[in-house]
Amino acid sequence: MYRYDQYDQQIVNERVAQYRDQVRRRLSGELAEEEFIPLRLQNGLYMQIHAYMLRIAVPYGLLSAKQMRMFSHIARKYDRGYGHFTTRQNIQFNWLGLEDTPDILADLASVEMHAIQTSGNCIRNITSDEFAGVAVDEVVDPRPYAEILRQWSTFHPEFAYLPRKFKIAITGAKEDRAAISMHDIGLSVVKNAQGDVGFRVLVGGGLGRTPIIGSVLCEFLPWRYMMTYIESIVRVYNQHGRRDNKYKARIKILVKALGIEEFKRQVEADWCDLKDGAGTLTIEEVNRVSSYFTAPDYEKLTANEPSLDSFKAENKAFANWLQRNVKPHRIPGYAIVVLSLKKSDVAPGDASAEQMEVAADLADRFSFGELRITHKQNLVLADVKQSDLITLWKIAAANGIASPNIGLLTDMISCPGAEFCTLANARSIPLAQLIAERFDSIDFQHDIGEIELNISGCVNACGHNHMGNIGITGVEKKDHDEWYQVSLGGSKGNNSSIGKIIGPSFTFIQVPEVIDRLLQVYLRERIEAERFIDTVRRLGLNPFKEQVYATAIEAEPEEKTEASLFKPAQYSVPFYSPRF
Amino acid sequence: MMIKNKAIVDDDWVVLRLAENETPESVTVAVGKVIVPLKVWFAQRDKLTDRSELGVWFASDERPEELKNDIGKFAVIAVDFPKFSDGRGYSIAYNLRARLGYNGELRAIGDVLRDQLFYMQRVGFDAFAPRPDRNIQDALKGLSDFSEVYQTSMDQKLPLFRRVQRKVNSIID
Lengths: 580, 173
Description:
CATH superfamily of the largest domain in chain A: Sulfite Reductase Hemoprotein, domain 1
Structural class of chain A: alpha+beta
Number of strands of chain A: 20
Distance between the termini of chain B: 54 Å
Strand content of chain A: 15-25%
Distance between the termini of chain A: 44 Å
CATH class of the largest domain in chain A: Alpha Beta
Structural class of chain B: alpha/beta
Oligomer: heterodimer
Number of domains of chain B: 1
Largest interface: A-B, 43 and 42 residues
CATH architecture of chain B: 3-Layer(aba) Sandwich
């Protein structure tokens, strides 16, 4: 993986000093909160309901065992012993004191990490394929380009105060695992007929209140133009994106308003004097950065490890895990392992300090010391020998990170929801837990098969509700009650679609029954190995709607359970909560 | 007081801002060194064109191309930041320098604060009028927050990878 040189380290160190001084000025009252907000946000520091939350960048989701151990250290020293991995492949700590944050950044800088541009109206951390470099279907490894873009976007002077946040995702495989069509810019590294490397550039995708799938801006952009072309896209957006209404400020609204042809014309007009200028990427720089992403020392192994079959036959839990959590690797005898952070008793994406250490140890022992974070909030060990799978599984299972549920119903995406976030209307995490308890049976989950259930606590869609096969969104009605809207038919990947709302919303308690009814239709109607999403596409929404709304759904009165439901998921509310 | 070329200097220019009841056509431009709104320049071009010392300022929603034919006529061009979080002024500055070839004084006015000066200087500003309620000595420090940058802009025509020999992964070399 990429390692800092003296320049990277110097920039990050200077950022720590700058931020330390900003916090000093805030604490002394020299800076008003209003002025401090955009400064701390550019550093990923949010004020949430109970405390400050710090979002740390994990560039394109790749990190070393040493960096993972630093997260564990931060969780123990400054937080409450756990961290939360996010859908943008980052990590968040939820219970921090402002005065500690400069020291946390200094700790991070010591392991080549930072929190630069993890929030604010700037170019955010670039996300990528969690299987980059090892996927069977990879065309070009996107990681060198992701790193080059990380550096280009870091403290870009012209684009620190855009109309709204700006997210870029990049993938280099046939199957899109980075949801590039829902990003402000989505890049897919491709090869043309001559074998030259370039990018298919999508622009104007996004979720939130107005979900839009990105449009193709350029079918083949030669690799050397990557930064100058993106510079022109962002410059057009910076000048013309709406600033009068936060909800209409993303680039997707501008692209929609201008039309993709006119937007492209403006971008290319801006680009013409940059095109072959000094900002053009060089092959030397691509080669330099690529030198950090060469394949590790793989052993020469046979394609299929024989010991697995006998163990699988006698151990159902292992067999389930092998089926769901272990993915094919491009090198014979190796496998990709997904460590699940989805269990019915914890918030999706949460990991304890101990689990982080276990994951780091597993990486050191079995996967060349590296890990990845997935947009589905799980961890990946990308280079595991098949002959190590049994030992690895035993350790992972003993530490609660081996739920055999990757891609299944309980592998939900959930935003932090109303217990942490000031925007949310609804309690995403307790709902995720309620659903996980209801469908706890792993046999049932395996029978249902591949399905994506996504939960957002509000219309801002941090939990990717629009892209869920089943999407749940917390909505507020005028009496401040929380209601849950259910949508059907969303999906990520090459064949992305945005889900449609099935009808009137439901109460908290009713949601699991709604999901059960949707699944009943699927079980009744599916043809052979058809996935849930395929059945939905084939039948349309009607049979599902009919089943869901056929009879009233009984719901226990909320009063009965209120006390337990309003308690933050697993953690008690601290008395210093700024909201109170 | 203002910051120019990284030093604190006296400011003998006056920025004309229209009051609510004034229009670009009717407002009286005082004698002396005045930086007028772009709209006033267009409305009173004939009257103002012979002044030896005149400045013009852009609002954040105005386009630098509008001044294409007049760019050489001003001793100062300023860009107003109505709120520091309105980042359009950075692209206005870049376009004035890079596309219109303006090389006179380019001044940031309005909600100009220490923590944005580093970025402003990179896109081509060489003069800053920090908000008057702030310590200008302090603001000056903002210009030196970072000693190295990755990407090109007006202050740095080459990206880092074209300027220095950067480290290749030593494990494979």
